[in-house]
Automatic annotation (TrEMBL), chains A, B:
The keyword Hydrolase applies. It comes from Acrocarpospora pleiomorpha. Signal peptide: none annotated. It holds the Pfam family WHD_NrtR. This is Nudix hydrolase domain-containing protein. Residues 368-388 are annotated as: Disordered. One of its GO terms (molecular function) is hydrolase activity. The keyword Cell cycle does not apply. SUPFAM superfamilies: Nudix, Winged helix' DNA-binding domain. Residues 143-281 form the Nudix hydrolase domain. Belongs to the Nudix hydrolase family. It comes from the Bacteria. InterPro entries: Nudix_hydrolase, NUDIX_hydrolase-like_dom_sf, NUDIX_hydrolase_CS, NUDIX_hydrolase_dom, WH-like_DNA-bd_sf, WH_DNA-bd_sf, WHD_NrtR. Keywords: Hydrolase.
DNA sequence: GGAATAGTGTCTATTAGACACTATTGT
DNA sequence: ACAATAGTGTCTAATAGACACTATTCC
């Protein structure tokens, strides 16, 4: 649980003392104040207020952009509007904030601005601070519980195997934050889309190919309040598995997309992934490993026709261990519905010509493929255990 | 290619003739004008302008909401601001529009509003119309791709076993939508909370007891755009498992919380659950069944001390099948770290006194507990299969 | 005493893992 | 010729499922 944060907006030029007083109330009640800075005004009387903490040489709209960033990084917005007055800059900020979906509360009912003011959103700073504070204090007036709006995004962990090694698709970020760092492909949910729609669209855009045959599986949703410096962004990670795609080009976006070896991207390079994508990749990898045990997704790495050795190499690449070829062969062939023999054979490397298979109808492997080296094993004898 | 559409904003009160003139220019060049209506003003001189085509009885902000809808339905926005003047309502609309990512063009450079005006966006209506009509020049490109803000919520599927049957905690909704229907407990994410924080807080509130020992697992995130009639609400479902709790009272909220038998809530009663909670419950149940196979969560249903028969009844209740008592006994006792024998015995029902156990250190069962009736089984012989 | 339960022993079918072996190819 | 690969056979240890059996309790 992170300390909640508020941004105060309003006509600083006219009402700065009121703003300071309200900010103090929030601070006294354990709520962080992201904006305005607790500073002093250097150009009193001017239309656009500047604070001593603002960089003196930057333009008005650069300062305003910084203010909006701080506002978006907070959990809710409090409008300080004595007499109901809301100026033009505040009106503009209010539009941005409301379109973004942040919760907005008002000190007084807004005058002369035709906006919807829901029941319970006109409230004093103290009442609001008390209602938010974790103390179950008395709520003197009915106020709507502050809800947090978030921008949902979908990020994709897509694996493939190249030269016998597991690779993941990463993009180099072209914009801040984390400009130049590697990140998982993904993007924001657009109007009318579900997370699955977004993931599929992004996958198409990033790989630049027909990904209609690629199945997406939801992995996990990451919602830590500070996981993205831009504000409240909640991402849902998806897992996808692709057969060996020859080349990939980021089709629509300026940044480049490339296959990177998984081990390398996780441990090497000093180059940590952007945001929490390192964790997401790690957890996606573990999920892929589990899926190989229990389902037939290993086939998704292969083309339409494949040999059992190729399938084994998939398991070895994903699991990161060697698998006994003979026993693997028998397990695969003896599991109903896993693979179906074709009449063709392939003879590429030294050795007997290998039979070609195509996928069977099964999707679940029960009993599962046993992953080596996981043995917790049952005990041989019923010895008296005394684990604490 | 659909006919492009523009929305004009600006101070209609002061500049309506300019607005009409600009609109005519767009119309003459084959561009649709979504807003304002080509109508006349019924309340000249008043702060908030009303048109003859507006419903006369509706409130200012209802009309404004309709206007915003039309603006958002257009492809770009043209700000009619003679002398650079932008009023407060226009500033608010501008904020909404820019946050939405729509392209914005200005008749003149905006004065006294600290916003970013990109190169080439100050342009006459005629130039703009021609550029768009010809398709050659300035293409209205979104400043930023439209994003959707959503309210994240956490819903909880919490199971327990009462009288040998699996129960789930459901609440009766006290407000619309779905007033009076049963739903999963849950709620909106509050400032500073992660989804996990929200789920834990709601669980405490709903069960009204110390749930510090209860572990939450994320299940799935449901994001269909129309899954909640109130708007864009994205819910993440969590799974929790509780030992037999004697009674539950919804502590903070007006609605009642009660344990309901799972089979009943899913199939019977004609009473479908609210929202998509029926699906969530179904998928949560399947996940719980899988977890019992692969982990020691079955112990979470039991108290601190338990007999092996009690644990078996947990498996039977969740899986919905009978389990062979002898083999279950052996499997549990022979799996290292699953359970630890205590020195006590319990003698409640007819039969020999049962030994009491407590939980071991293991969390993962490998190899797993085999769930009966899942057999896809491997083949006895390597028969030629011909599955399609 | 009869029924129900707890716990152990035993048998069978199946499987994972290990290894031997043959057949077939590229170099 | 040699090394590498494909595929089959066989042995061992472990396990799931089935059932028999004893001991202990409640009614």
């Amino acid at each position: 649980m992170i300390r909640p944060a508020v941004a105060l907006i309003g006509s600083f030029r006219q009402h700065y003392p009121h703003v300071l007083a309200a900010a103090q109330v929030f601070l006294d009640n354990g709520i962080a104040v992201k904006s305005p800075p607790m500073s002093w005004i250097t150009n009193p009387g001017r239309e656009f207020v500047r604070f001593a903490s603002d960089p003196p040489r930057s333009s008005d709209h650069a300062i305003q952009a910084g203010t909006l960033e701080k506002i978006f990084a907070s959990d809710f917005v409090y409008v300080v509007n004595p007499g109901g007055y809301i100026g033009r800059t505040t009106a503009y900020e209010l539009g941005r904030v409301r379109e973004r979906g942040l919760a907005v509360f008002y000190a007084e009912p807004p005058e002369d601005l035709p906006i919807d003011v829901p029941e319970g959103t006109v409230v004093s700073a103290l009442d609001l601070a008390i209602a938010i504070g974790r103390g179950t204090g008395v709520r003197p007036r009915p106020i709507r519980r502050p809800r947090v709006a978030a921008l949902p995004t979908a990020d994709i962990v897509i694996f493939t195997i190249r030269l016998g090694r597991l690779h993941v698709l990463l993009v180099k970020r072209g914009t801040d934050p984390f400009r130049g760092k590697l990140a998982l492909p993904g993007g924001f949910v657009r109007p009318g889309e579900s997370l699955e729609d977004t993931a599929m669209r992004e996958l198409k855009e990033e790989t630049g190919l027909d990904s209609s045959g690629i199945r997406l599986r939801q992995l996990h949703t990451y919602s830590h309040p500070q996981r993205d410096p831009r504000g409240r962004i909640v991402t849902t990670a998806f897992l996808a598995i692709a057969p060996n795609l020859p080349e990939v080009t980021g089709a629509t976006d300026a940044y480049r997309a490339d296959w990177v070896e998984v081990e390398e991207s996780l441990w090497q390079n000093g180059g940590r992934l952007a945001f929490d994508h390192g964790v997401i990749l790690q957890e996606g990898l573990e999920r892929a490993r589990q899926l190989l045990e229990h389902t037939t997704v290993g086939l998704d790495f292969c083309g339409k026709h494949f040999t059992i050795s190729e399938l084994r190499e998939v398991y070895e690449a994903v699991w990161g261990v060697k698998v006994n070829p003979q026993n693997f062969q028998r397990k695969v062939r003896n599991t109903t519905g896993f693979v179906v023999k074709t009449k063709e054979k392939r003879t590429s490397r030294p050795g007997a010509p290998a039979e070609l298979f195509r996928r069977g109808t099964a999707h679940i492997l029960y009993p599962p493929m046993m992953r080596p080296g996981q043995q917790q094993r049952t005990r041989r004898e019923n010895q008296p255990t005394n684990m604490v």
